[in-house]
Design the sequence.
């Protein structure tokens, strides 16, 4: 049996690491054999599932349900038993607004500022992100020299941490930064971009596109490469112009990928936090304050923290995300159906 | 040679350049500058001295102004190339500056002050890499501690993720039991629950377990990632069940089957998950920021963001530490670029 067991050919280094691991495993094996005798085969399934389910249950599922309980309580205490039940007061407080388009008319004015900012951010970022990643994918799909190099160029920022992304751009956009230097060459005076409400907002949108575009480009590129080449050849034979081929062949066949990308970008845009937090800290004023930062600050950071209010706000955000997810799952299913029909 | 040229300049138009060729190359070259440029600028800047960092317009490469010790002056003075009124050039040291007039001395004849209009002088500069930006944080800051915390969190979380997720994936792919599809559905459903939705109750659970201000409080909530279970299960489904039946007939225990047969065969999928887990955990920010409030427990990401938020930002240290933070991810990228990019496109990983 031992000789028949297929093994991937490992390096000598890998084998060396495996020796103590194998020894330890031998020691683990004996008690586990005893466990197997007690539990039987079906019980072993539960045994293998247990560690993951335990961690998953405690740190993902349980908080998910406790969140509802939290949102019904008030005060600044941390643990649920010390908190007073207030019913739907937190939700009422969040929605206490005479004019939803004017955050100043609301009790929780920063919440509605964050909602407004997030909405604007989502609209702008999603549109531009789809546009840029689609154009990049179309270009990378052409017959290019060193295609994998160009693919790597656009993908590279995806792996950088949000903190690094935020710091790089904070450094470039500051008064002595690279952007001012480049503009100085054209005769512009240096400007502190991140102290300007509108420019800070634009920077947040631009930086988040810079950081994540490569990921969506790759998904779209995979979709483009799945389109059979002979379709284009046939179209060319029929004398179809390239623009028409794009609208009639490329776009319809790319649609399943495009829809998935749109929803993924939407889901991530609603949760925007890290990069922008490092870049602007939500400022100047509240011009780049987004929902996740509102929840973080209400729940943890401020002196008068209100975990109940933060939980209520996070549930509202969760509802939006679940709706988006359901749309995505629906899209995934319908595109599978289309796929099987072919 | 002409074939290479033809390959490089391959384009759509048969006679001359089609407009799409021009757009393509503008986009690609622009992309090269916009995508790589900022990181290159960061690395270049991280070698500049604080004085060079404060300068505008900035220089591409790090330069320092040369200094000279002149008799009769306590501090070393900056050296300048000066065009004298009579048209001669000289190297002078600046004593002080009043308005547009700079009072300078010749280092050879320190007694005599020469007044020069500042338009007539240029600093004498040499290229110098301020490596102290990198060495000093190691000595004076908690940088080593942050680095260690980050490495500990990343390595431990990745190992636990691999073991726990592969065990679950094994159970979900190789056993028939009641509630299997329910467990799978539960895992898939929470693929979409982002941390920002559950962070308030998660914080209290972590505190209740005594893991607040503890690196385990950062590690544990992240290790049961549904994405991992999903990828590994899909891969294990392709392993033939006959192999497992044969092992059972040879009296192998279930644990041996998992450890000796299934895991080695799942190596490619485990490698993908390992790479992603390393990148995710190394880059984590919001959760460590919430759980860790004691300085000596900060991870690199938290430490960096706290430092850069302080009023007196010491950019020369921040930039160097940012570069160090980038290094592991860039290494992963360089060695596994092809693997990662095709892997993502294939699996649609988040």
Sequence:
């Amino acid at each position: 049996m031992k000789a028949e067991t297929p093994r991937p050919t490992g390096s000598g280094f890998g084998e060396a690491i495996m020796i103590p691991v194998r020894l330890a495993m031998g020691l683990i094996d004996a008690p586990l054999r005893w466990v197997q005798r007690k539990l039987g085969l079906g019980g072993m399934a539960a045994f293998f599932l247990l560690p993951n389910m335990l961690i998953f249950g405690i740190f993902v599922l349980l908080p998910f349900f406790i969140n509802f309980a939290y949102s019904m309580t008030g005060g600044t205490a941390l643990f649920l038993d010390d908190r007073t039940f207030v019913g739907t007061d937190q939700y009422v407080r969040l929605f206490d607004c005479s004019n939803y388009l004017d955050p100043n008319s609301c009790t929780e004015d920063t919440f509605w500022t964050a909602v407004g900012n997030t909405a604007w951010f989502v609209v702008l970022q999603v549109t531009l992100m789809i546009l840029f990643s689609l154009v990049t994918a179309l270009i990378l799909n052409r017959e290019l020299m060193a295609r994998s190099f160009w693919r790597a160029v656009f993908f590279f920022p995806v792996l950088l941490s949000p903190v690094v992304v935020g710091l790089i751009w904070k450094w470039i956009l500051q008064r002595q930064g690279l952007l001012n230097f480049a503009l100085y060459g054209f005769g512009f005076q240096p400007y502190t971009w991140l102290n300007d409400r509108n420019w800070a907002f634009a920077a947040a949108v631009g930086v988040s596109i810079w950081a994540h575009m490569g990921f969506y480009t790759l998904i779209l590129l995979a979709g483009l490469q799945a389109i059979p080449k002979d379709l284009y050849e046939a179209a060319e034979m029929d004398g179809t112009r390239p623009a028409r081929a794009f609208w009639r062949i490329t776009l319809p066949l790319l649609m399943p990928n495009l829809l998935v990308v749109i929803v993924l970008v939407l889901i991530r845009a609603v949760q925007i936090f890290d990069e922008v937090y490092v870049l602007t800290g939500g400022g100047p004023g509240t011009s780049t304050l987004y929902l996740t930062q509102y929840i973080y600050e209400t729940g943890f950071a401020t002196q008068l923290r209100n975990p109940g209010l933060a939980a209520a706000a996070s549930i509202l955000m969760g509802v939006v995300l679940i709706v988006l997810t359901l749309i995505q799952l629906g899209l995934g299913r319908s595109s599978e159906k289309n796929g099987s029909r072919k | 040679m002409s074939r290479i040229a033809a390959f490089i300049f391959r384009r759509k138009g048969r006679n001359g350049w089609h407009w799409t060729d021009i757009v393509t190359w503008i986009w690609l070259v622009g992309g090269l500058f916009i995508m790589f440029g900022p990181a290159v600028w960061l690395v270049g800047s991280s070698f500049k001295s604080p004085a060079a960092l404060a300068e505008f317009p900035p220089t591409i490469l790090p330069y320092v102004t040369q200094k000279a010790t002149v008799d009769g002056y306590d501090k070393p003075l900056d050296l300048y190339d000066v065009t004298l009124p009579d048209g001669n050039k000289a190297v002078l040291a600046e004593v002080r500056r009043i308005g547009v007039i700079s009072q300078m001395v010749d280092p050879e004849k320190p007694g005599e002050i020469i007044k020069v209009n500042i338009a007539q002088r240029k600093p004498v500069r040499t290229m110098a890499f301020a490596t102290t930006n990198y060495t000093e944080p190691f000595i004076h800051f908690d940088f080593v501690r942050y680095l260690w915390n980050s490495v500990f969190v990343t390595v431990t979380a990745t190992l636990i993720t691999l073991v726990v997720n592969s065990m679950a994936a094994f159970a979900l792919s190789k056993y028939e039991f009641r509630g299997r599809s329910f467990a799978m559905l539960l895992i898939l459903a929470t693929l979409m629950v982002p941390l920002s939705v559950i962070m308030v109750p998660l914080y209290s659970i972590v505190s209740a377990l005594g893991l607040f201000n503890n690196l385990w409080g950062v590690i544990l909530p992240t290790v049961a990632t549904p994405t991992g279970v999903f990828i590994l299960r899909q891969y294990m489904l392709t392993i033939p069940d006959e192999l497992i039946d044969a092992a059972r007939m040879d009296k192998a225990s279930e644990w041996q089957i998992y450890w000796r047969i299934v895991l080695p065969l799942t190596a490619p999928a485990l490698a993908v998950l390992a790479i992603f887990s390393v990148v995710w955990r190394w880059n984590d920010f919001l959760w460590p920021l919430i759980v860790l409030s004691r300085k000596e427990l900060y991870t690199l990401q938290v430490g960096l963001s706290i430092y850069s938020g302080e009023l007196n930002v010491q950019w020369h240290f921040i930039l160097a530490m940012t570069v160090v933070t980038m290094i592991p991810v860039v290494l992963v990228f360089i060695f596994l670029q092809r693997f990662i990019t095709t892997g993502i496109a294939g699996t649609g990983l988040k």
In short: Chain B touches chain A through 108 residues (CB under 8 Å).
